[in-house]
Design goal:
about 220 residues; alpha/beta; 7 helices; about 35% helix; globular
């Protein structure tokens, strides 16, 4: 095997931001060969699939892989990870063909929550790396309790954008999530979050069960 391929089925428009995170996790769990991420844009198809089981089947036809990641936001369910996991496993059972290992990616409450910890990346994305505006980043222990991580991240970006060297506010890029994710080199702080711990546990079990020969000792 020349490359380790994984495919990510998206839950929203910001899912590109998961690619650097998942790749970092695979590397840090010992995958020793090149990693090739794949993100099917199923919404661009002539007849976009609506049911999750159809999304899985089509994504795998288009992008065969070693591991299939399926992202679902936890949002506001009382038992969010369990609820979303059951949805994914139910869809998995409805597909009548051999599948690669499927891993659930379920942040609390959305992917933006996994981008709130790195001040340097936030400042760089708005083109103001030397800004001195106090950003008041949440403590890592508080991140999963934030009601609206997207709103919080956008406020941090707004605060970080002003004042720049010319004393003006800069525009926040529309793809700020993926831009932040690409700027972050070390996702170690996420290992303190319960949802990320669940993800890492599932990925590690999957790697050791199916791909132990690809891991560093």
């Amino acid at each position: 095997m020349n490359d380790f391929k994984y495919t990510l089925i998206a839950d929203g428009r910001t899912d590109d931001a998961l690619i650097p995170i998942l790749t970092w996790l695979l590397i840090n769990l010992g995958v020793k060969i090149g990693i090739q991420p794949q993100l099917p844009i199923l919404g661009s198809l002539r007849n976009p699939p609506k049911r999750l089981q159809d999304k899985i089947a089509i994504a795998l036809d288009l992008f065969p892989c070693n591991i299939l990641f399926i992202h679902r936001d936890a949002e506001s369910d009382e038992t969010p990870i369990e609820t979303r996991t059951k949805e994914i496993r139910k869809a998995e059972k409805l597909i009548k063909k051999t599948l690669p290992p499927i891993v659930c990616v379920i942040p609390i409450k959305m992917i933006e929550s996994w981008l709130l910890f790195n001040e340097e990346a936030i400042r760089k994305v708005v083109g103001n790396p030397s800004g001195r505006q106090n950003l008041s980043l949440p403590k890592i222990s508080e991140i999963e309790k934030i009601a609206d991580p997207k709103e919080r991240l956008e406020k941090l970006l707004t605060d970080a954008s002003f004042p720049n060297r010319r004393g003006k506010r800069v525009n926040i890029p529309s793809n700020y999530c993926v831009r932040i994710a690409e700027e972050i080199e070390d996702y170690e702080p996420l290992r303190n979050l319960s949802a990320f711990q669940e993800l890492e546990k599932e990925v590690e079990i999957t790697l050791r069960k199916h791909f132990s020969d690809l891991l560093t000792s």
